[in-house]
Specification:
Shape: globular
Helix content: under 10%
Structural class: mainly beta
Subcellular location: Cell membrane
Domain Leucine-rich repeat-containing N-terminal plant-type: 43-82
Strand content: 15-25%
Transmembrane segments: 1240-1262
GO cellular component, one term: plasma membrane
Oligomer: single chain
Largest sheet: 31 strands, mixed
Distance between the termini: 45 Å
Region (Disordered): 1209-1231
């Protein structure tokens, strides 16, 4: 079993119960003696008639069937008779008969058992005459080629116990009459083409033990009535199109042993009720679309042997109770969204042989393997696991596969690996491993694949290969290995079928050993980025199976050999960055399977061979930075990327490039010139065109922008173009980068440029342009612009909105937006890609970065980069904006002297796997305005000790979603301009400080400290923050009463005089304006911070220990849109003044001790969209003088009645004339941790954008655990469904 179910289980229980059914049927038939033996010959004649329909009998099994032998019918092959010589059983299964099934069998009136399974019988449908077999108990026709629908007369066989029709070509729906067969125990309809729904009538067949309808096209919901089939032991509905949720009623099936629902389109969560199926052995729910947690009580399934839940969207922890399922043989929970640590109890599984937890978000250490002696397959790759590889893993002597790569582990591969003599695959790539490779790997003679790539291994490659005679894949790329390639690899290849060898990105040197030529089965060979020297070995030309050869970034010498291109299977050849010389051979045209050829920076001379046109599969040809000359020849029809920059071709723009598939063309600095007359309509898919640093003249090519509507990057800079830009058309909705700098263009900047929706970089510098820049940049939210060295002006009245100029790094070219010849201010933006692997240290390393380049912005957010936190960041002394958010960077933030980064304005390290304590030195950064360390694994106290008399410029501080402890950081009060403070989801303790001297943080707009362990009374200063709009103190231990003085909360009250057009900003020494804005989804509209000031406000004090009455003064908070006071100990009546908050959209007062009537004013609040007053002691009539309550679905029994038994009147059915009953003692008000209706009002999805002029860093301050809850507050889709982030800009997506 390789993680998938074994489909070898017989289609109707391997006929394991068939013997029992036949015996019972024979006993019944033998008891019937009212028929005479003279009918025996009549049965024989009927069988001979059936035989006429058999077209092939390859084994002559029916040779005994003869008219001359009618007296011995009961001795014919496959025939069983009763005591009175009547045929009661016909079993011809597995005889490879072909032909049709004759309806004449319907005349065998005493037939009890009919089995024609596993033959090649066919027919347009089952004969209707079979319905006359009134005594039939077993009908097995599975494994044939029967088509059509199930005939209705079959429903007259009321004695049927087993109906097996699987493995045919039946179509149509499952007939309802099957539910009328009261004796039916097994139903096998799997592997057909049935459609429609599963009939509810089947629930009437109370004796059903097996229902198998898998591998069909059935849809609809799984009938909840199946929960009444108390004898059911197997329910197999896998590989259909069922939808809806799994019925809770299935939890009543105490005898259920196997439940197969995999490969359907289900929704919802795994029903907790399933944990009541105490007999369950197999639970297969993989690939069904399920969400929510794995039920905490899954441990109740003590007999469970197979638990398969992979490829769903399950969340939450791995339940500790799973340890109770000690009979488990298979655990598959990979490819979900599980988080938290693996419980240490998960270790006692003596029968477990298959264990997969890969591709989740699990943290902590790997489980112990002390009592898993049968374990054969373990996969935990692509998680956030830490610690070392446990020694107990090496004691699992039956292990065949170990996959633990892409985790921030650590430590070394132990020498104990040699004990795994059966291991076939060991994969630990990108696992932060160090040390050397143990020599004992050579004991693992069964190894097929060994991957330790992208770690920090040191030392040399050991010579352990001789005994690895089964090795096919070997990868140690991306380490720090030194020395030479061991001779043993080549010796191993004399026996081993090695086809994948990756030694790239190490420090290996010398030459490649000659005996590597023994590896003739190689399909992939990579030695890139090492220090190999000398000529490329001649044996390469003998690798006839080689598909990919990567020799990049070494010191290989010699010429580009013609023999390489004669390799028949070659698909990709990478030889860039070596010391080759000479010309490209004409044999290049013989590599007919070649798809990619990369040959930049290898000193090529001569011309590109004309034979390149013969390469019909070639997609990429890159030969930048050489000395190629002559005309550029035509390329094959499939060419997509053509890079020929920095060569010496000369002449005009090549007219040979008539390639409709071409997407990227780079001819930078290639000595081309003259007017461009090429018809760009021949390149309709062109996305990137770089013609910079040539000598092109004349006007800009009009056909380019008329016909290349997919252009993303266009660079025509540093040429001699003249004329105006206005003649261009503007069919360029995808254009992101436009550079026309350093030409001789004249006239104004046309208006169409300002309406390009995706434009991020615009460089028009050093031309002769005139006129004004526009006043409105609202359509250019992504733009970074440079129009220097022109005579354009900016209207004075709009100067505050003009963009700021910086350097933009794109496609390896430096487009300078600075006129300084010594300092280049650089923005390195590779955010929002799908980059993976180690953190690119070259971005900050002086060995890769010229000293004259000063980073202002470094943004690598929203990728899948991994590895430890980059310790060299403090060398970027000029850095102002740092964004590493949303990656897999791990480890302690060490080796960085933040105090040396004095210019830092914004830093976002959120949503990684950082650990350790609060990084020191951040409180010394007096320019820092934005700091987010949210959603990591940081611990300890929050240490912020600002220098005396220093001015703290911090405006946004988000530390949510960590494990910080200690008290609330009082020094934050020195930050007078702080607008957003988010310390939620930590472990802070103690009381909030009481600032007596002066009002702290008077600019605070968002105060979020939920889900901590804070206690004591809420201090008065909180209620005097004039700008406060969002306050969330939920899920703490606050006590005392709610204040009655809200007069200071101007941002929440009716007397707010805040301007709706005011934003806060800070100015750096470089004149860059840093603007903070908030984006929030409300009723489908993205509201910016300035608008929210007058339209959104929110307060949550839920799940604390507050007492007393709800103050009447709360009605003065007229700006509130959400109010949650649930799960406290509040008493008294609901104040009618709440009705004054006319903008309120969500109100939750549930689970308190409120009493009295419901104020009628609540039912006049037209904006109210969510209401919960349940679990209190409310009584009296529900206000009915407003017609809204009759139609508003929010005012339902679910929102009002639980725990409020004294309520009466519509919409309830309780008359107000009867006396109210006593409160239900089982509904206890106050705090609870359960997830109930009142959860809707958690604080949600505030997106803080730091905007550099028109350039914004988009940062999620609050955790993903909270986003969906806010959407429920207003009944909206998830913000992630309506919002996307693009490099340096925030954009809403039209729906």
């Amino acid at each position: 079993m390789s993680g998938e179910d074994r489909r070898s289980r017989d289609t109707y229980g391997s006929h394991q119960t068939a013997h029992f059914h036949i015996t019972a049927a024979l006993a019944e038939a033998n008891s019937l003696d009212d028929l005479q033996t003279e009918f025996s010959s009549l049965d024989g004649e009927l069988l001979l008639e059936f035989k006429k329909g058999i077209q092939a009998d390859p084994f002559h099994r029916l040779s005994s069937w003869s008219s001359r032998n009618l007296v011995n019918v009961c001795r014919w092959t496959g025939i069983t008779c009763s005591t009175d010589q009547r045929v009661i059983s016909l079993d011809l299964s597995g005889m490879q008969l072909s032909g049709s099934i004759s309806g004449i069998l319907g005349n065998l009136s005493r037939l009890v058992h009919l089995d024609l399974s596993n033959n090649a019988l066919n027919g347009s449908r089952l004969p209707e005459d079979l319905g006359r077999l009134k005594n039939l108990q077993i009908l097995a026709l599975d494994g044939n080629n029967i088509t059509g629908r199930l005939p209705n007369p079959l429903g007259q066989c009321l004695k049927l116990r087993v109906l097996s029709l699987s493995g045919n070509l039946l179509d149509g729906s499952i007939p309802f009459y099957l539910g009328e067969m009261e004796n039916l125990t097994e139903l096998h309809l799997n592997e057909n083409q049935l459609t429609g729904s599963l009939p509810v009538s089947l629930a009437s067949s109370a004796k059903l033990q097996t229902v198998n309808a898998s591998f069909n096209k059935l849809g609809g919901n799984i009938p909840q009535e199946f929960g009444g089939l108390q004898e059911l032991t197997i329910l197999d509905l896998r590989s259909n199109e069922f939808n809806g949720s799994i019925p809770e009623e299935l939890g009543r099936l105490q005898n259920l042993e196997e439940l197969w629902l995999k490969d359907n389109n289900l929704s919802g969560s795994i029903p907790v009720a399933l944990t009541n199926c105490s007999s369950l052995r197999i639970l297969r729910l993989e690939r069904t679309g399920l969400t929510g947690p794995i039920p905490a009580d899954v441990g109740n399934l003590r007999h469970l042997e197979v638990l398969s839940l992979f490829r769903n969207s399950l969340t939450g922890d791995v339940p500790r109770s799973l340890a109770n399922c000690s009979a488990l043989q298979v655990i598959e929970v990979g490819w979900n969204k599980l988080n938290g640590e693996i419980p240490h109890e998960i270790q006692n599984f003596p029968e477990l042989y298959w264990f997969t937890i890969n591709d989740n978000q699990l943290t902590g250490e790997m489980p112990s393997f002390h009592n898993m002696p049968q374990l054969q397959y373990f996969s935990a790759e692509n998680n956030l696991l830490t610690g070392t590889i446990p020694d107990s893993l090496y004691n699992c002597s039956s292990l065949q596969v170990v996959r633990i790569g892409n985790n921030p582990l650590g430590g070394q591969v132990s020498s104990q690996i040699g004990k795994l003599t059966d291991i076939q695959e060991f994969s630990a790539f990108s696992a932060n491993l160090n040390g050397s490779m143990p020599l004992e790997v050579g004991n693992c003679s069964a190894l097929v694949a060994f991957d330790l790539g992208w770690n920090s291994l040191t030392g040399s490659i050991p010579g352990f290969f001789t005994d690895l005679v089964n090795l096919e894949v070997f990868s140690i790329a991306g380490n720090h290995l030194e020395g030479v390639v061991p001779w043993g690899i080549g010796e191993m290849c004399l026996m081993a079928p090695l086809w994948y060898l990756d030694l790239g990105v190490n420090r290996l040197n010398g030459t490649i050993p000659d005996n590597i030529g023994n590896c003739t089965k190689l399909r992939y060979l990579s030695v890139l980025t090492n220090q190999f020297s000398g000529p490329v070995p001649l044996f390469i030309s003998n690798f006839t199976a080689l598909e990919i050869l990567d020799l990049r970034a070494n010191n290989f010498e010699g010429g580009v050999e013609a023999k390489w291109f004669l390799l028949p299977a070659l698909k990709a050849l990478y030889i860039s960055g070596n010391n080759f010389r000479g010309e490209l051979p004409k044999e290049l045209g013989s590599a007919l399977n070649l798809e990619e050829f990369w040959a930049s920076s290898i000193n090529l001379t001569g011309s590109i061979p004309a034979e390149v046109q013969q390469l019909g599969n070639l997609r990429v040809f890159s030969a930048n930075n050489n000395s190629l000359q002559g005309p550029i020849p035509p390329f094959g029809a499939r060419i997509q990327i053509l890079e020929l920059a920095d060569n010496a071709f000369g002449g005009k723009f090549p007219t040979s490039l008539e390639n409709p598939e071409l997407q990227s063309l780079t001819l930078h600095g290639s000595g081309l010139g003259g007017e461009i007359t090429f018809n760009f309509s021949l390149l309709p898919r062109l996305q990137t065109l770089i013609l910079s640093n040539n000598s092109f003249t004349g006007s800009l090519p009009e056909s380019l922008l008329q016909h290349c509507g997919d252009l993303i990057l266009l660079d025509l800079s540093k040429n001699d173009f003249s004329g105006s830009i206005s003649s261009f058309t503007h069919n360029l909705t995808e254009l992101q980068v436009l550079s026309l700098a350093e030409n001789r263009l004249t006239g104004g900047i046309p208006g169409w440029i300002w309406s390009l929706p995706e434009l991020s970089v615009l460089n028009l510098a050093s031309n002769n342009l005139t006129g004004n820049l526009p006043k409105d940049y609202s359509l250019l939210k992504k733009l970074m612009m440079n129009s220097s060295d022109n005579e354009v002006s900016v209207p004075v009245e709009n100067s505050a909105d003009t963009p700021y100029y910086n350097f933009y790094y794109v496609v390896g070219h430096q487009i300078s937006f600075s006129r300084s010849s010594f300092i280049i201010y650089k923005v390195s933006d590779i955010s929002n890609d799908s980059l993976s692997g180690p953190f690119p240290s070259g971005l900050i390393s002086f060995s890769f970065r010229p000293s004259f380049i000063i980073y202002k912005v470094l943004d690598i957010s929203n990728n899948s980069l991994s590895g430890p936190f980059p310790s060299g960041l403090s060398t970027l002394a000029g850095l102002q904006f740092l964004n590493l958010a949303n990656n897999n960077i791990f480890g302690v933030i060490s080796g960085v002297r933040f105090e040396d980064m004095a210019l830092l304005v914004s830093m976002d390290l959120s949503n990684n796997s950082l650990s350790g304590t609060f990084p020191p030195g951040l409180d010394q950064l007096m320019s820092l305005s934005f700091l987010s360390l949210a959603n990591n694994d940081l611990t300890g106290d929050i240490i912020l000790d600002f220098p005396d008399n220093a001015t703290c410029k911090l405006q946004v501080l988000s530390l949510a979603g960590n494990r910080f402890t200690g008290n609330f950081p009082t020094s934050i009060s020195q930050c007078k301009d702080v607008k957003v403070l988010d310390l939620s989801f930590n472990q802070l303790v103690g009381a909030l400080p009481d600032f007596h001297d002066a009002m702290p943080m008077s600019e605070l707009v968002i105060l979020q400290i939920s889900s901590n362990r804070l206690e004591g009374a809420i201090p008065p200063w909180v209620w005097q923050l004039p700008e406060l709009q969002v306050i969330d103190f939920s899920e703490n231990n606050f006590t005392g009463r709610i204040t009655t003085n809200f007069s200071g909360l101007l941002g929440l009250g009716m007397n707010s005089n805040l301007s709706t057009t005011t934003t806060s900003s800070a100015t750096t020494d470089y004149g860059i304006s840093v603007r903070f804005s908030t984006l929030l989804w409300a009723k489908g509209v993205a509201l910016r911070y300035t608008y929210i000031l007058s339209t959104f406000a929110f307060m949550s004090l839920s799940n604390n220990e507050l007492t007393g009455e709800i103050p009447h003064e709360i009605g003065s908070l007229t700006k509130l849109r959400g109010l949650n006071l649930s799960r406290n100990n509040l008493d008294g009546e609901i104040p009618s003044t709440i009705g004054s908050i006319t903008s309120l959209e969500g109100l939750d007062l549930s689970r308190n001790r409120l009493m009295g009537f419901i104020p009628s004013e609540i039912f006049h609040m037209n904006s109210l969209a969510a209401l919960n007053l349940s679990v209190n002691n409310l009584s009296g009539p529900i206000p009915s003088n407003s017609p809204e309550y009759q139609t508003n679905t929010l005012f339902t029994t679910a929102a009002l009645f639980p725990g409020n038994e004294g309520l009466c009147g519509p919409p309830s059915n309780k008359s107000c004339e009867s006396s109210p009953p006593s409160p239900d003692p089982t509904l206890v008000p106050g705090r609870t941790s359960s997830n109930t209706f009142g959860e809707w009002v958690s604080l949600q999805a505030f997106l803080i954008g730091v905007v550099i002029g028109h350039v914004g860093f988009s940062l999620m301050l609050l955790s993903s655990r909270m986003r969906s809850t806010f959407s429920r507050l207003l009944g909206l889709p998830s913000p992630s469904d309506r919002f996307r982030q693009v490099s340096y800009g925030v954009y809403t997506v039209p729906q």
